[in-house]
Every structure is written in C-alpha cells, then in structure tokens.
Amino acid sequence: MTEPDLNLAGQRREYSGGTLDEGTVAPDPRVQFARWYGDVAATSELDANACVLATVDENGLPDARVVLLKGLDPEGFVFFTDYRSAKARDLGAHPVATLCFHWPALSRQVRVRGRVARIAPSESDAYFATRPRESQVGAWSSEQSTVLPDRATLEDRVRSATERFAGREVPRPPHWGGFRLTPDTLEFWQGREGRLHDRIRYRRVDGTHWTLERLSP
Fold this sequence. Notes:
This protein has helices spanning 29-41, 86-93, 121-128, 133-141, 151-164, and strands at 50-56, 62-68, 71-73, 76-82, 96-103, 108-118, 176-190, 198-204, 210-214. By secondary structure, it is of the alpha+beta class. The longest helix has 14 residues, at 151-164.
C-alpha cells in the first residue's frame, strides 16, 4: 500500500486583505460582523454564511462540522438542524459552542463563542416554510447522523415522504428546528503581511456593553 505523501511545508501565501483597528471597528461586535459580512457578500466568495460549528459531546470529546448561518438578530447567531443529530445531542449535553467563519477572499476570520439554546417553535416554523420543498421532504426522510444500510434505504424514505405530503404543504417536523448562539466573545482576525495579523476581541461586559482588546498575532 502506497503511503500518502503530502508536501505541505512549502505551501504558503501572504495575507493582504486590509487592516483592523480598534479606533474604526463598531462598538457592537454584531454590527462589526454585519459590516464584514456585507464586504464578503460583495465578493465572489461562495457560501459566505458557511461556518464551522464546534461542540463537545457528553464524554468531553470535541467535534466540528460546517453549518450555514441563517440569521443574526440582537440575541445572536441562528442555525438549523435535526434535533436528533450528533450536534444537537452535543448541545443538549453541553449548551455551549463556537462558530468560526473563514473568508479567504478577504483574508478574514471571525470566531464567535457563547451559550446555545433552541429558538422558539414559531421561529423554526417561519424559516422552515421558506425552504425548498425537496429540503422540507428531506427533513422528514433522514434521521441525521444515524447509520444507514445503504443509499437505497434513504431514497425509499424520500419517496415515502413525498407521497405522504403530495398535494399539500410540508409541515415542519417536530424533530427539526433552530438554535441560537448568544455570544460572550467574538474575535475578528484580519490577515496581514509577515503573519503579523490584526486580532480584535470583544468580550461581553453585560447585556449591551462590550470591551475591546487587541491580541497578539
């Protein structure tokens, strides 16, 4: 068997997407996030709302996966999933998490850490109604993270759900909905030449006030 040979030591690039300064960032990190998101949305960056969700399971083991941010409101960052999934079980055991956004086109990264809770069922209903019908049917067809014997089994479940809801709206499954991460800290990272990156961290003081700190690169 041939061993993999990945010569990665020589792969590098310089970061030159801009600067980040305490005097120009917004006092509220959610406003700053919205500014940066607007910048990246104006580029050709695909899936700008994709982020890594890091959790810890009931045994204290970490896990991470990519999810799509679907809302940012005064309370926090909203994403959706199957409540029976591995990530949802992790959040049930330890309702804390980190989201990490990486936008290479602008040499930027944002990390968001805080507590996580389910959103109201009415909020999940409202979002579910906007999903493509195929995705709505899929939510009824798959018990996320469980073992499947083969692809055909999943496709059979999709056909069954399609027939079940033929000619009518697909309701939100009770096992599917949203989570909201309410941040305690947010770190904005701007790549700079020579790896001397700008890092600005916001730490929550209370419900409406934040303190800013510059971190060493």
